[in-house]
Amino acid sequence: MTLKERVEEVLKKVRPALQADGGDVELLGVTDDGVVKVQLTGACGSCPFSTMTLKHGIEMRLKDEIPEIKEVVSF
Q1: What is the pLDDT of residue 37?
Q2: Which of 42, 50, 62, 65 has its CA 20 to 30 A from that of 71?
């Protein structure tokens, strides 16, 4: 399984919580050095807590399950 596929599997676990609040996350890519690029959409895209969701929710979960991940950034 590729790194990108592994990231997608973790995002599938995170999505229900985001979707329950009217948002979602879209994977834009994963770099060779472990940076995950995502876009928060729907209510999450304009939420004032989106940075908190990104860093303390999505990034933390990805790092826990995939040690190669160094950072998650949003576009």
Answers
A1: 98
A2: 42
Nearest to residue 28, comparing CAs of 53, 11, 52, 48? 11
Q: What does 1-62 look like in DSSP terms, one character per residue?
A: --HHHHHHHHHHHHHHHHHHTTEEEEEEEE-TTSEEEEEEEEHHHH-TTHHHHIIIIIIHHH
Domain ranges in the chain are 3-74
Report the CATH architecture of 3-74: 2-Layer Sandwich (3.30)
What is the rounded CA–CA span in Å between residue 43 and residue 34?
A: 27
Question: What is the value of pTM for the model shown?
Answer: 0.92
